[in-house]
Design a protein that fits this description.
- The complex is a heterodimer of chains A (267) and B (226).
- Chain A has 267 residues and is of the alpha/beta class.
- Chain A has 2 domains: 7-81 and 155-259, 3-Layer(aba) Sandwich (Rossmann fold); 93-153.
- In chain A, 30% of the residues lie in helices and 24% in strands.
- The longest helix of chain A is centred in the middle third of the chain and has 18 residues, at 169-186.
- The radius of gyration of chain A is 18 Å and the shape is globular.
- With 226 residues, chain B is an all-alpha fold.
- Helix content of chain B is 80%, strand content 0%.
- Chain B contains 11 helices and no strands.
- In chain B, α6 (122-130) packs antiparallel against α7 (135-146) and α8 runs antiparallel to α11.
- Classes of the chains: A alpha/beta (267), B mainly alpha (226).
- Chain A binds chain B through residues 46, 49-51, 76-84, 86-90, 92-94, 103-104, 106-107, 149-150, 152-153, and chain B through 121, 123-124, 126-134, 137, 141-142, 145-146.
């Protein structure tokens, strides 16, 4: 694994009624967080994005230490250079698609912005919707515009919280392909949360499975489906029959089991 | 003063006072509402009480505090005396009336704006931050525009309340004909001198304005709730 471009997360956060306690390390490819609802997958994304601060842990993206409770290190979200498409509010409802994307380009000199916006809108096939408001778009169009916006500042990583769950099947298939392409083109770590096992296994270079019992298992889909670490993970991964093609060997990491109570993550 | 002037001057003064108080509410109240609506901090309950206090206290009491603050024998007087040698107060001026109206109407502006700001999905503010925008820009470009209707509703309520302010105004601005006799004060004068016709006209104007502004505010807040 290329540790200089990977992402490692160790986060412990006590919230009313829920305790997040996870740790995993992944390479620069496409990572999918999969598991039961309420296991803390979305919260993990929020801590990586920096919109939620855990009490303890350590988050590192490539060479950059974004959070470390031991040394009181904390990079605020606006300085993290991490694209984050959250589940709830994807676009600013009071701005057109164009304004939404422009908003993300504060760091780009004014002269270059229009060109960059045009390029992004073109890339995500929303050029013809540039002057529309989010409520005038379909679910798929909104997702493509949200991706354009999240990628506008050229982030070092991209986080996607169930980006496809609200979409109709044909659009989902198309979006999956788009997400794979984006990851390959940009070669940055992409971390996506999903509840859909088929989607998880088709997209993931590395699968991170959150079981309900405080264990996280990391590996390629084939490795995890072949050797689930716990009965819960087996139940999760064998819920549906997956076509063999889905589990083709991809360049992921080695399978590892990281018990939740470990104080250090595996580097 | 002719009968018409007895109505026109207080009307003009009240509009001027209410406009100044509303601008004050926007400048002071919106930042307060933003902090109360988006942050948790120690002493928040106390801050909340302080902002809301003028809403439940008798306006005369608020007016008394303001007099202590800006009167010649108050804090302002003492300050100006140490700096310039002469005590200067701003009591019994139209500015004092505006200050009284500001203090009384601020809680309305803050509470309405605050609920609108708190109702904005925090995911939008989070998104703005992850896109590289700091606190101030997130507030100005994302959160406040999304709460705009509620903020305007709060300011409309504040304006309506300021238009008819009486108790605090009497205390700190007094009842000086041609200077500080706002509409509500003039209603009091008219009744005192038995000029029921004048009182009726002023009361009608105040009632219609208040009702109109309330209607506007409720339309704006209903759109927020939707």
């Amino acid at each position: 694994m290329n540790s200089t471009t990977g992402l490692s997360v160790r986060a412990v956060a006590s919230l009313p009624g829920f305790t997040l306690d996870v740790g995993w390390t992944v390479g620069p490819g496409f990572t999918v967080l999969f598991g039961y609802s309420g296991a803390g997958k979305s919260l993990t994304l929020a801590t990586i994005a920096g919109v939620m601060r855990p009490q303890h842990g350590r988050i590192r993206l490539g060479e950059r230490l974004l959070f470390d409770s031991a040394s009181q290190t904390w990079t605020p979200p606006q300085d993290r250079r991490i694209g984050y498409v959250s589940q709830g509010a994807q676009l600013f409802p009071h701005m057109t698609v164009r304004r939404n994307v422009e908003f993300a380009l504060a760091g780009v000199p004014r002269g270059g912005r229009a060109e960059r916006v045009a390029e992004l809108l073109e890339r995500f096939r929303v050029s013809n919707l540039a002057d529309k408001r989010p409520h005038q778009l379909s679910g798929g169009q909104r997702q493509r515009a949200a991706l354009a916006r999240a990628l506008a500042p050229s982030p070092d990583a991209l986080l996607l919280d169930e980006p496809l769950s609200a979409l109709d099947l044909p659009i989902r298939v198309e979006m999956r392909e788009l997400l794979r392409q984006v990851q390959r083109e940009l070669a940055i770590p992409v971390v996506m949360v999903t509840h859909d096992l088929y989607e998880a296994c088709t997209l993931a270079d590395t699968l991170v499975v959150y079981s309900g019992t405080g264990t996280v298992q990391t590996g390629t889909p084939r490795e995890l489906v072949g050797e689930p670490a716990t009965p819960e993970i087996r139940r999760l991964l064998h819920a549906i029959e997956l076509p063999a093609s889905v589990l083709e060997k991809r360049n992921g990491s080695d399978a590892r089991i990281i018990p939740i109570d470990r104080k250090e993550h595996v580097a | 003063m002719s009968a018409i002037a007895d109505i026109v001057f207080p009307l003009r003064l009240s509009v001027q006072v209410a406009l100044a108080a509303t601008v004050g509410c926007a400048v002071i109240g919106v930042p307060i509402a933003y902090v109360l609506g988006t942050r948790e901090f120690r002493g928040k309950a106390l801050a909340d009480v302080l902002v809301t206090l003028p809403l439940v206290m008798p306006p005369v009491v608020t007016g008394y505090y303001l007099l202590l603050l800006v009167g010649r024998r108050g804090v302002l007087g003492a300050l100006t005396k140490t700096v310039t040698g002469t005590a200067v107060g701003m009591a019994f001026t139209w500015e004092a009336a505006a200050l009284a109206s500001l203090a009384i109407s601020l809680p309305l502006a803050v509470s309405t704006a605050r609920s609108a700001i708190a109702a904005v999905d925090p995911a939008h503010a989070d998104a703005a931050r992850t896109l590289g925008r700091g606190e101030l820009q997130t507030a100005i470009f994302v959160v406040l525009p999304l709460a705009a209707r509620g903020i305007i509703a709060g300011l409309a309520l504040a304006f309506a309340r300021a238009m008819g302010e009486f108790g605090a105004t009497m205390m700190v601005a007094g009842n000086i004909p041609g200077r500080t006799n706002t509409m509500a004060v003039q209603v009091f004068n008219a009744v005192l001198y038995g000029d029921w016709q004048q009182a009726t006209v002023l009361v009608a104007v105040l009632t219609v304005t208040s009702a109109g502004l309330l209607l506007l505010a409720s339309r704006l807040t209903r759109a927020v709730a939707r």
